[in-house]
Design goal:
homodimer, 217 residues, alpha/beta, six-stranded mixed beta sheet, disordered C terminus
Chain lengths: 217, 217
């Protein structure tokens, strides 16, 4: 078999990928407003299921963009999600990515309370001053703890990106966020991941960053 | 609707996840040797397609484990993959994770040669002394360059984990690696990702790390 490579310049690869995704999504009724987010998640995963599973709370987009514009920080539950987020663009709006997973006080609290470090991170985040976006791509326990903190009125996130992946309480934790009353972007079902969390953050950032606008078609 | 959480202790979540994966894979003829790798990729993605798409070169497992044991370093094409690999366990064998994506000389070479930074990283890696494993979860251009370097006899990787994700030359770049003559673990088709690359590295590391053996069932 002869393997033939498509001749695409490095700078054009992403745009070409989005063209292919757009073409293959034809016939699918995407809400135009959310298309850049859905397409970027598909770009990151090559998984078109996300066109059906991504759920958006009412008016989440203006709320999310406004939060970023006012300098919201993004809290992640993995170093991988942190690594994947475009921190340069986020910093342009005054925000940074916060991850407490390797903090000693978090490990200590998790051990004492018999919870996960990811859940303990949410408690630590609740003490943070300033607007927060949560990008949870791994730990359903983080989403469950966020739900509790919201219900106890100890935390009011600007946005929860709820896309943990897995098999134990993942589906349920996402359903809790749908009922939390805060703005959300959630991948219903088992699928998700740190890469998906980062892709959604980047899709939002690129909607605000005109230098990347060309990639959003 | 009442949302009911399954009561699983934090330390048991991973083992319970692997139980569910094993249960749902029943009836599927997995090669026992590769089951820990396939299951860990499914654990990371909740995507059972990988049971069909992961391809292994002959005797890749003893070769990969022997490379790790002799202190091979792992070269990644993203910071995300680097973030996801268990660097503590790798360091126990004398290896470390190398990522050249943000190096200035790499950016310069990519610009001069009209290639991607990921491809230029492979040239830089080819100058490295000592055994190397490549974990490529993002850039097909990195796989294409690896193939060229192997054919030019400038590089002889111990193992290529070839799992980029996407739409432009992704399928083809993986097929090239299947013909490269070096040991490989490849996710055929469009799917993959930095998370998948890291998961495969970790599956290999945990096969060697007895403290994690319980999670490999």
């Amino acid at each position: 078999m002869k393997i033939e490579l498509e001749n695409v310049l490095p700078m054009d690869i992403e745009a070409r990928s989005f063209e292919i995704i757009t073409e293959e999504l034809k016939g699918k009724a995407l809400e135009a407003e959310y298309a850049p987010i859905i397409k970027r998640v598909i770009h990151t995963t090559a998984d078109f299921e996300y066109a059906d599973t991504l759920a958006f709370s009412p008016e989440v987009l203006p709320k999310a963009l406004s939060a970023i514009r006012k300098g919201a920080c993004i809290v992640t539950d993995t170093q991988m999600a942190k690594a994947g987020i475009n921190k340069r663009v986020l910093a342009g709006f005054g925000g940074e990515v916060l991850n407490f997973m390797t903090d000693e006080d978090v490990a200590k609290q998790a051990k004492e309370q018999g919870t996960t470090r990811a859940a303990a991170c949410m408690d630590k985040a609740a003490k943070h001053k300033g607007p927060l976006i949560f990008a949870i791509g791994n730990a359903p326990t983080a989403l469950v703890r966020l739900y509790e903190l919201i219900k106890e009125e100890k935390l009011k996130p600007e946005l929860i990106i709820g896309v943990p992946v897995g098999f134990v309480n993942v589906v349920q934790s996402k359903e809790l966020i749908l009922e939390s009353g805060v703005p959300y972007i959630v991948a219903r079902g088992r699928k998700g991941g740190s890469n998906v969390a980062a892709a959604i953050c980047n899709a939002l950032l690129y909607l605000l960053d005109e230098t990347r606008a060309g990639n959003q078609t």
